[in-house]
Design goal:
With about 290 residues, the chain is mainly alpha-helical. The protein has 2 domains: about 5-90; about 115-285, hpI Integrase, Chain A, CATH 1.10.443. Helices cover about 55% and strands about 5% of the residues. The chain has helices spanning about 5-20, 25-45, 55-65, 70-90, 115-125, 130-140, 145-150, 180-195, 215-230, 235-250, 255-260, 265-270, 275-285; strands spanning about 155-160, 165, 175-180. Strands 1-2-3 form a 3-stranded antiparallel sheet, with no helix packed on it. Helix 5 packs antiparallel against helix 6 (about 130-140) and helix 10 packs antiparallel against helix 11. The radius of gyration is 21 Å and the shape is globular. It starts with 5 loop residues before the first helix and ends with a helix.
């Protein structure tokens, strides 16, 4: 296994973020600062190569060192460092992510917000523009992760067969997801009429400047809509939870739902369906009342 200096690994990771993921300069700057801060800590504790970083010796103590900061700040630092090591695994420099099990938030996390189909339609109605409208529709009608939505390219859509091809989803696997008639019609309309005709990117979802839409832009608008319309917190990932829950409530077929979501393990799908399981439990408990 090739040994790579931690500072060199950071440089290569930032280059990948800039060139392949087209991350904005603000994201690159904050990520660079977080990673260099960690690199200084690692050097002070005898870690020169990225392979030297160990969960017990470096990841856990570093998290403790950040404990005086706000939860969101700690979460941002840990997530950026975790991203570096995910990249290292992709490059086959390492086999395990030393920050993979580091908790990024203390206490009990809030359950995800699950919205109904009517509420999804409300979200769609209040979307700021047609690009966001179509992104929300892909999340709500196809259940894709936000990274998968924003990585979609023009040749990933088969309108004749009503199929979306998700390439290099989580776990670097490709899967095919059927489109609803509504999604098929609206996606075709967006590409033909509303997609910016600038630049040479093959990505479907673009800003007016031709840059690829970023997750933060999507989630900021979605959170605003949900707060104003429903008084709840909502993110793009919760559209995926809602998609899964609605399908399961209608079909009770967990294996098929998991396949559409691209889950490797049924236990992962179960975590998405905790609302449905709670409802099922109440139904069973009411049998003898």
């Amino acid at each position: 296994m090739k040994h790579v200096l931690l500072t060199d690994a950071i440089d290569m990771y930032l280059t990948d973020m800039r060139e392949r993921k087209e991350a904005p300069e603000t994201t690159l700057k904050s990520t660079r600062n977080s990673l260099l801060r960690f690199a200084r800590y690692a050097a002070e504790h005898g870690a020169v190569y990225i392979q030297d970083i160990d969960e017990a010796k470096h990841a856990i103590p570093y998290k403790k060192q950040l404990s005086g900061m706000a939860d969101n700040t700690v979460k941002s630092y840990i997530m950026r460092i975790r991203g570096l090591f995910t990249f290292a695994i992709e490059q086959r420099w390492m086999k395990h992510n030393p920050f993979g099990r580091i908790v990024t938030r203390e206490g009990v996390s809030e359950p995800p917000t699950i919205i109904t189909r009517d509420q999804l339609n409300t979200v769609l109605y209040h979307a700021r523009n047609y690009t966001l409208y179509t992104i929300y529709l892909v999340g709500g009608d196809a259940g894709l992760r936000i990274s998968e939505i924003l990585n979609l390219e023009l040749d990933h859509i088969n309108f004749e067969e009503r199929l979306l091809t998700v390439r290099k989803g989580k776990g670097d696997k490709t899967r095919h997801v059927p489109m609803t008639p509504r999604l098929t019609m609206e996606l075709k309309k967006y590409i033909a009429t509303h997609r910016p005709k600038v630049g040479d990117s093959n990505r479907i979802f673009l800003m007016p400047t031709g840059r690829v839409v970023q997750p933060g832009f999507v989630n900021n608008d979605l959170k605003k809509i949900a707060q104003e319309q429903f008084g709840v917190k909502l993110t793009s990932h919760m559209l995926r939870h809602s998609f899964a829950t609605t399908l399961y409530n209608q079909s009770q077929d967990m294996l098929s739902v998991g396949k559409l979501l691209g889950h490797k393990s049924i236990s992962t799908t179960e975590r998405y369906l905790h609302v449905s399981r709670e409802r099922s439990r109440k139904l069973i408990d009411s049998l003898n009342e």
